[in-house]
Predict the structure.
Amino acid sequence: MDVRSPPLARAGVYRRHVKASLARIWENVFDWEHLPSLHARDFAACTLIESGAWGWRVRLVNQPGDETKAQILELHADRRAHRYCVTTLEGPGAGSEIRVQLAPTAPRETDVTVEFHVHEAAPARLDAIGRRYVEVYERLWDEDEAMMIARERALARRRKARGATATPVRLGGVDDVRARLPVMAVFGGQRFRIVEIDGDMVAHAVTCPHWLGPLEDAPVVAGAVTCPWHGYAFDVRTGACVSGQALRLAPAPQVVVEDGVVVLAAGA
Ligand code: FES
Ligand SMILES: [Fe+2]
């Protein structure tokens, strides 16, 4: 920030009632890694510089390949006071602060107030910056809230699935199942998707082993699916992670044909 910059002024405020617990929100706030995946429209790449119980510092690129717009952002959390602040240390908007106050209103509901503070003195310019921030933050919180709600549901599903027994599941006649692919099925209390790869029907888990992100709508590209939450990718046939993390998909049942009927059966 230039020392001659005008002092910080509030450009705008965004208020939202979020259907997520404080725990889910803090998890999301500390999760810098989701920025370029979940918010792919707004961020292109994010690299961690440092993190701790205090928060994180990252290098964020907004436009793919446009390093001139890279920013260094630092998030500081005050969990006791239910608030955090994101400061732009370098890059466009250096010196600006985004101050967020959280106020739980029910076990899974939280009021969120986001204030945008920038070094700008001209009222018209300040107003335009504020409107732009509100537009972007509405979209970011739409995406974050959807993720938090989905994660809460996935955690509940996982608790419920514990101890479920795996018995064979008949999906229907071969031609009928092939015509309906991709097909979803529950086996042993877990959800799987059956897809066709190189002419074979293959089942794969649709819950990401990282944070339980949803894989049921992820396109299969070169035999792999990519999780929309943090971008980890998995080989559909083997379940192996192909993006470098030490994770793998839950073991999937075999897809076998018995007397012309497609059956999900326990893997070998
Ligand atoms: S939940 Fe993080 S990559 Fe899937
Ligand atoms: Fe987010």
